Amino acid sequence: MKQLDFKVQGFLFSGISAGIKKDGKKDFGLIYSEVPARVAGLFTTNAVKAAPVQLDMERIKRGLCQAIIVNSGNANACTGNQGLRDAKRVSSLIAKQLGIDEKLVFPSSTGVIGSPLPMKKIEEGIPELIDHLSPEGWMSAVEAMMTTDTFPKVEVATCRLKGKQVKLCGMVKGAGMIRPNLATMLSFLVTDAHIKAPLLQRMLEKAVEVSYNRITIDGETSTNDTVLLLANGKAGHPSLSHMDRDGEIFQSMLLKVCQNLAESLVKDGEGATKFVEILVQGARNKEDAKQAAYTVAHSPLVKTAFFGEDANWGRILCALGHSGVQINPNRIDVFFDKAPIVKNGMGVGARLEEKAGQIIKKKSFKVIVDLHQGKSQFSVLTTDLSIDYVKINASYRS
Amino acid sequence: MKQLDFKVQGFLFSGISAGIKKDGKKDFGLIYSEVPARVAGLFTTNAVKAAPVQLDMERIKRGLCQAIIVNSGNANACTGNQGLRDAKRVSSLIAKQLGIDEKLVFPSSTGVIGSPLPMKKIEEGIPELIDHLSPEGWMSAVEAMMTTDTFPKVEVATCRLKGKQVKLCGMVKGAGMIRPNLATMLSFLVTDAHIKAPLLQRMLEKAVEVSYNRITIDGETSTNDTVLLLANGKAGHPSLSHMDRDGEIFQSMLLKVCQNLAESLVKDGEGATKFVEILVQGARNKEDAKQAAYTVAHSPLVKTAFFGEDANWGRILCALGHSGVQINPNRIDVFFDKAPIVKNGMGVGARLEEKAGQIIKKKSFKVIVDLHQGKSQFSVLTTDLSIDYVKINASYRS
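The joint structure predicted for all components is written out below.
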């Protein structure tokens, strides 16, 4: 663990065990801002949306949030009207005890889907949860949202905006490979910067586009995915409302924090033994590059070859060939890091292939595909497909 | 093994070991018709096409074929101009020794890609291959094209056309899960029926659409996939040229044979322990039904749950939600065989779920999804994702 200071002016955190998880680990967390914060958010594109996601998507329209509640162990998804009522009730109980407007409370959940929230346990846990709120409670809140994550994923960064020191702290929980039982990714970011909600939203979208939207583990999209960014303005600088030089400074800090968190997600992919960047370049356009990169990154044959440390480039060409992208097989080059393995659609020969074969033995490497069709490129981070992935996901509920 | 008679009038078969495979098993096969046969064919849609596929796609335009050569152990894919020259040379040597026109010979290959064909071994094997041709050689030819298949996949059927007995024999080799190192599916069908090439092609397309095109194991499409149907007319009935009553009889026999072969492919999927039909009904249109069915069938989370015998219906809803198909989550019903597990997007309760939980323990079952959006449906056969799949594919080349 990095020894980092996660205190951010005006934010309090808490995480406790409310008995939702069977193993007694922390499963109920709270992030609270002393004043209503500007909020930006992004939610799952899955048509099946968990109850808390539905509620947050409604509440975020006002642009303000003062508290995020999170529980693990139960996703509150596919729970119908009961699920919505439960999510509302949790937020209203929290709001009442914090003395704030219920609509400023954003619930979120992750875990098994299809079961109603254990409301009794949750209600009983609320006093303790609020009681534990403290500026130092960050790691407890992080632990409370972890599921199969093997380590907590946190980042902190600072910058100066209009002469004031500004801090940004981010946490994310396990896309795993991706999270089993609905692959939930939750990420919460808090800052004392003073940024108007529309700009904050644009900044978050830009950062997510090149971080969380660039990682893929098994191509699944959860019902619960949520990214929330809260800015409470406690740093005391004049408000940012458009993308000026200070805006750029914050944007670049936000982007870096999200990228680091996204990388740590992939590194903690369920059963992952490899951490691989797939870069497709020389595509006719961005869409082609993206589609080709994702097809390679999702190919079970490519991913099992990574796991087996087999520089089986034929599987990469095969994936490109059925990606739906217009390609000329005879012009494709492939490199593992800097070592060529395919030139003009053919193997480079045993001697050079051996070099590439050494690179695939590394924990982390890059696969570069050049389609030689144009100038666009797209990069995505992924993992291998391991025996442990199957084991973890075959037995998740039992 | 079924005790079946695979003799078809006017066809001879052969299969030998030419030393292409390392383990000394049969790897070189030949199907020969005493007279030029009408031919229909379907080839991989992968943009990366193996050399023999490129050649066959050219040759099939004439509508005639007299010999199919097949080798396993080497796919002759991603081998550039050398690969094309090699494929041509093999067919010309075979043609010369058989005393037939080279353009009537259709080569096909399966195995590791990116290596040139071992031409010396192949050339030396040709005399023996031809020498072994016999009406009883069917199973040797089947063995010669097997790779990780654990059993030979063959079908035979008969019917009467215009008063004459007609026979159809089919063989297919391993889509595995799907075939590693390019997932090749090869299927050859021979009949003594007399059917003109354009009608034969339409019949084959129709049969493949509801057989080989309805199975999916890992969503990969090989560079070498080939289906060829030869009709040599030896049964002696007047030629069929359009879809009359006799045409329908043959069509339905062809369809059944292809479906049986397709089912056996799935059952022999690499590492497969489950054989699952995914039926999506109540879709707005066929495309939606197809897309939803494939998304469920390809979902690693759904497939690992099958392997773990976990009736984790949330993963099915999740897959439907990110399938890109417009759905109303609150109207979705799901059944395992006849047992309901999801009603209106929610679990049916512990007692009923237990019943569905029993069904998933079976070797073979059906998942029925009703979207309640319309009247279209689509069905696809698939497998689970097992630990053995990863093992087989991680170590395929080593």
